[in-house]
Amino acid sequence: MTGGFGFALSCPLPDRQNEVIELAHGGGGLLMHGLIDRIFRPAFAISSADLTHDGAVLEIAGARLAFTTDSYVVRPLFFPGGDIGSLAIYGTVNDLAMCGAQPLFLSLGLILEEGLPISQLRQVIASMHTAAETAGVRLATGDTKVVEHGKGDGLYINTAGIGFVRSAVPPAPQHVRPGDAVLLSGDIGRHGIAVLAAREGLGFEGEIESDAAPLAATVMELIEAGIDLHCLRDPTRGGLATTLVEIAKSASLDMYIDESSIVVSEPVRGACEILGLDPLYVASEGRFIAFVPLHEAEAALSIVRGAPRGVDAAIIGRVEASRGRGVVLEGMIGGTRVLDMLSGEQLPRIC
Amino acid sequence: MCLAVPGQVLSIEGEDALTRQGRVKFGGIVKQVNLAYVPEVAVGDYVLVHAGFAITIIDEPEALKTLAYLAEVEPEELS
Amino acid sequence: MKYIDEFRDAASVRRYADAIARITTRSWTMMEICGGQTHSIVRHGIDQLLPQGVNLLHGPGCPVCVTPTESIDAAIAIANTPGVIFCSFGDMLRVPGHRGSLLAAKARGADVRIVYSPLDALKIAQGTRDREVVFFAIGFETTAPATAMTVAQAARDGIENFSLLISHVLVPPAIEALLSAPDNQVQGFLAAGHVCTIMGYWEYEPIAQRFRVPIVVTGFEPLDLMQGIYLCIRQLEENRVEVENQYRRSVRRDGNRIAQQVMRRVFAVQSQRWRGIGEIAASGLGLSAEYARYDARTRFGPAEVHSEQPSECMAGLILRGLRKPTDCPAFATRCTPERPVGATMVSSEGACAAYYRYRRHDGTGAGVGLDMGRDASP
Asked: Which chain B residue is nearest to residue A276, measuring alpha carbons?
């Protein structure tokens, strides 16, 4: 197949007719966004303003409610620092918090695989109970289904959540402004590495624990202190870099991020060095990014640092009007590079 | 190619030449590494690890010389 | 982290940039032949710190990029064989063969598993005796010892449900092939520090002399790269031709003798096809007679043979340093990391992937001067 450009392609382009879903479609990067744009958006007539990453803000009979849903398919079911159950609670609670909402109620959908030991189910439910109490939410309704052995990976969970929006203006990428400061609430990458290590049996001693934790209380503190939260987002799938790129694209703005201000713990650093992973793309489940007006940045930082797990919170960058550059990382040794979404999930490498 | 990472040997287990291994610390994590290619390694040494194998013991005096070399080439370097 | 952080010191890197600028009086073209160095250079912006006229080319140093399409096809065929557990380094999963990649095969139900070490694959074989486990052994001389020791262990412990699909390549023959080519522009080489950790650098001395090209064995951190480039330019400026060792904390002239011994016992040198370049004599490793029974190609039979396209993909020219990724009309348009056309776009070490990730917005590619950040005019 000649390209008409004076050379012949030596590898055939993949046949798009026979496209199947690949794991990378769930990775939060370009392939997943491709699915959303090509398949979901046209079907549901969702405008980009409505399809925020985290949740929808709905006006119902004069009340502003945030509504979100998420499904949890993590393997292994149990990992250091949590399990699929606690993750399912915190993940949805955090999505509501990212809408500036006080989480109130969750629904729970369980898909159980035939053969799952009931002791494991008990453990997951107990973990969800503890997590819900910690997060201050209640389970309002639920459903359980069982699928045949071999069809389900043990256990899948879906949680949906509702909460009252407390911020005057619900945070969204559209509200980010040139000049805003970018605040990161803590160190990154623990969750992704914890799950990867557990799943692949990487045999790391001195286990890295997932950072999964509820964020609503800290967000409410910021709102109560009158901080103008232009946008909030938790850097889950795809990590910090992907999240920043998504927001920059939605907001049509550029960002300049200072690499040396991003905190990566020693264990996560070591694991990333060995596996050849970039910590900027590794998920966290108990951290958030906030875009606030520059003059409020120090106050916001002080509040987050005072909250649980906030010790490594930092201002990591600034927003600027778009000159078409996107998210620029100002590197440790002085060079710059543009951050982009990865094409698929980040794979460990040897080269 | 060749992502090889330096780590410190915390302990060494086994006598067998092929399977001798050690617990090696990289930043904040510890992993088992095959030491067959560095038979003279001692606890406390730093090794370079690739694909689960230590491929050399890092020479600390040479490392320091490399870092110090910069001072030799600047600022009064020839043109 | 010790032995990493000190070699990423920003101030030192800048001082090397100044020193290099001071000693450079004319244009020079150098090549590094290590995907890890490509990655580090582009990621840290090392080439942005070099003076105009210092041209740093990325050679065929990415074993992922140079693994022949035939090997990928063989890997997929084996992975699709019922009952097989196919183990591979993560790097190889997205490389396109004639009919998709290993990742695509996995999506269609093949049991493909990522491992960090060939020992992990052997462990899987020990743990699941009723299934055939195959390990995709790729890489340069740095990785070959790991494969060799794994084969030796398998043989000694009688693990027979284990075999390897081998595609190990050797660097010196590739350097000779590059330097022998009539269109060669390379004036100096940065030799791959981890390859030389295993093999030493004595093999490069006759090459340097025969082709009158300075060779500097170089490490991977920003400081190593800057020092390696500095030493190479200094040789060029002073009209000296030597093999110098920048990566002294890791590399000795004789290399790792034990690793070499085990490699000699387990492997035999053979001719090897390099994707995008062609066949290079004595540039690959196959299993020696003593260990031939572990060869997955023999065990599973030859894969369907597809003829390689007669004209070369741009990747070949890029791998030989004759073009930059940004010269390719398909770059970032029809050829992207999600839909790669050539192998250099697939591997994170490949020049095209590195450029795509870090450089495509510049529009100018590498080695064109200092990027001062947002105030620079493009």
From this structure: B3
